[in-house]
Amino acid sequence: MSTLEIKDLHVSVILDDENSKPILKGVNLTINSGEIHAIMGPNGSGKSTLASTIAGHPKYRVDSGEILLDGEDVTEMSVDERARAGLFLAMQYPVEIPGVTMSNFLRSAKTAIDGEAPSLRTWTKDVKEAMGELKIDPDFIARNVNEGFSGGEKKRHEILQLELLKPKFGILDETDSGLDVDALKIVSEGVNRAHQNNDMGVLLITHYTRILRYIKPEFVHVFVDGHMVDQGGPELADRLEEEGYVSYIGK
Ligand code: ADP
Ligand code: MG
Ligand code: MG
Q: Which PANTHER family has this protein been placed in (predicted)?
């Protein structure tokens, strides 16, 4: 069993050489393997900042607090080291990598994370299977990473990585944005498979409750102005759907 523990985390976004702006103001959160946590909150509350900080994005500076993966502080680790340690962030705006095919990208990522190349036969089979389940066109594997991918294809690609790389914790930032209902279902089923098959812990960050019809969180956290203001079970998401965040603003 693994634990991701965030303790009194304060983070600033670096604007330029001299200026920064505090965004996260004391975030506390503990996620264990096999748990699904949803973080919900209004636009601009700092949800993506939290996700990017966990992943090690250089634009965000940890001012104080800790991010512990199985007791080890990851805040000084590079993005690659965090990935090897078992953290995976599905980016809100995934990047294009010109000249690198999906096939090479996935195999290099798997090799980097596991510390050894996967056996070619099982790997090819695993990739084919996962692509089939995500209803990804077989030609996709020969294309360059994210180049000319539609929004839905990018999301499926993220979930394909999640299924193949088998991280301990998957952080999904607005994975539902821009997906039609069919794509949302396929993507959600992929997250659920990674959760069930690999005991992955999930941090699902979302603005809307739509995705929570397909991915069922046990814990729902309300995030406003850089920190958690409430938490509960799935019923809290239903209440937010009806009432919005108004009652939390300024708390
Ligand atoms: P959310 O994901 O909840 O919508 P964000 O984490 O994206 O919130 O943003 C939180 C706040 O931090 C916003 O006020 C946003 O403008 C600011 N912010 C985040 N990243 C940057 C950045 N790179 N440069 C300037 N401001 C930023
Ligand atoms: Mg965001
Ligand atoms: Mg407050």
A: ABC TRANSPORTER I FAMILY MEMBER 6, CHLOROPLASTIC
